[in-house]
Amino acid sequence: MSASSSVNLIMSTLKRLILLAVLCLALTLTNGQLIKLARDTHYEASHKSDLFVDRKSFSLGENKGNLTFVTCPKGYHHHSLEKNCTIGLDTQPGRSCPVTLKTSKSLYFTEYLEVFPLAPAKAVIVWGEFNQTRPDGPNYQSAKILIRYTVVDVNTCKNRQLELQPSLNYTTYLSQVADAKYAVYDDSFEIIIENAEDPKYLNKYKIDGEGNIVLKSVPWIIKPASEVFLPVLVGSKLKGYLHNDNGPEGESRLYMLNADSGGSEKLLLKFRQDLIYYQDISTAHNTIGVARCGHLFNVETNSSNSRVDVVQFDQDGKLKLNTTFNTWIRVQYLELHNLPAGGFILVIGGCSKDEANCDRPEFGIQKFVPDGTVVGSSKFPGIDSCKGPLTLQVFESEPKKYCVAYLCSNAFKFDNLSIVQGKQFVDLLINCYTDDS
Question: Which residues, if any, are the signal sequence (predicted)?
Answer without folding.
Answer: 1-32
